[in-house]
């Protein structure tokens, strides 16, 4: 469900409280959603999960082990391998390992 532009920040916790799990990228929205205490998988591309993943026992990160990882987009990137390489199947597999699907 894509609610971009249709919600306010105060809507995020109530929206996620009923979720079986949350998949998000490493944004402030994910940090707010973490307040709902739902299992979360955070997709990290050019960022270091140690620095950007919300705090919580049920929060995990998925990332690719690439030479350019943790670049924080400090250079012109024409391939975005860190994001496009994370497939829906990888996300589903990880959610399965977390025991939420």
Characteristics:
101 residues; alpha/beta
Count every helix, treating DSSP H or I runs of 4 or more residues as helices: 5
Radius of gyration: 14 Å
Strand order of the biggest β-sheet = 1-2-3
What gross morphology would you assign?
globular
Distance between the termini: 17 Å
Mean pLDDT, nearest integer? 92
Largest sheet: 3 strands, parallel
Helix fraction bin: 25-40%
Structural class: alpha/beta
Q: Which strand-content bin applies to the residues?
A: 5-15%
N-to-C SSE series?
HEHEHEHH
Task: State the low-pLDDT regions, or none.
Answer: none
Number of beta strands: 3
How would you summarize what this structure contains?
The protein is α/β, with parallel strands linked by helices.
